Amino acid sequence: MARPYSKDLRDRVVGSVAGGRSCRATAALFGVSVASVVKWSQRYRATGSAAAYRMGGRRPRRLTGERDWLLARIAEKPDLTLRAVVAELAARGLAASYGAVWRFFAREGSRSKKSLHAAEQDRADVARRRARWKKYQSRLDPKRLVFIDETWAKTNMTRYHGRCARGARLSPRCRMAAGVR
Q1: How many Cβ atoms are within 10 Å of 11's Cβ, its own excluded?
Q2: Predicted local distance difference test score (pLDDT) of residue 116
Q3: Domain boundary, last residue among 76, 94, 112
Q4: Segment 93-113, tens digit of pLDDT
Q5: Cα-based distances in Å from 41 to 14, 18, 35, 102, 151
Q6: Is residue 101 part of a domain?
Q7: pTM
Q8: How many domains does the chain have?
Q9: What stretches of the chain adopt beta strand conformation (E)?
Q10: Is the pLDDT of residue 157 over 90?
Q11: Which of 111, 114, 128, 130 could disulfide-pair with 106, CB 3.0 to 4.6 Å?
Q12: Are 42 and 66 within one domain?
């Protein structure tokens, strides 16, 4: 980030303008822009000093007042997307960006989204059948296979991501226990 001009230069520029020299002549004399000379002169007349304003700093976080509500909402419905949280905040009268909500959850340690894991994969009988299918799949005769067209089936109804505690696996059972469909 660029640094502001020194206070000494600013004072000399303002003194030159106060002494009767024009802003353009002062800008050419000191090698600064005319806009800077005008701004410094206006600031001096308004505040009595041409010193630079403080640069940078932190903006207050909007979501700190909503911390308890946000954490309770995510505990109640762990598969809420960040965009859904932004929409709910807007309904509550608080305009927040997607990035602000993401940074809030990152600070709270709830930054990871989990992919949906089918609970059936954990069962031993399903695992055995999947292994057997993979083993014998190469022996199938492609001429004997039948193609079933299921392009009409909608598969985009289930959410594939959700939130849960760090280190825990998000599964359909956890989602159902939390009351999430």
Answers
A1: 15
A2: 62
A3: 112
A4: 988 888 898 888 888 887 555
A5: 6, 8, 10, 43, 71
A6: yes
A7: 0.43
A8: 2
A9: 114-115, 161-162
A10: no
A11: 111
A12: no
At 87, phi and psi to the nearest 5?
A: -65, -40
DSSP 60-77: PPGGGGGHHHHHHHHHH-
- Structure token pair of residue 63: 């979501």
Domain that holds residue 94: 62-112
Q: Is the pLDDT of residue 131 over 50?
A: yes
Q: Do 163 and 114 form a contact (C-beta atoms < 8 A)?
A: yes
DSSP SS3 for 162: strand
Residue 169 CB-half CA count within 13 A:
9
Q: Is residue 14 part of a domain?
A: yes
Mean of pLDDT values over 117-132: 82
Residue type, 7: K
Spatial distance between the Cα atoms of 162 and 104, rounded to a whole number of angstroms:
16
Taking a C-beta distance cutoff of 8 angstroms, is the pair 55, 64 a contact? Answer: no
Strand duo 161-162 + 114-115: pairing: antiparallel
Contact 163, 70 (CB under 8 A): no
Q: Is the pLDDT of residue 170 over 90?
A: no
Contact (Cβ atoms closer than 8 angstroms) between residue 96 and residue 64: no
Answer yes or no: is 20 within a domain.
yes
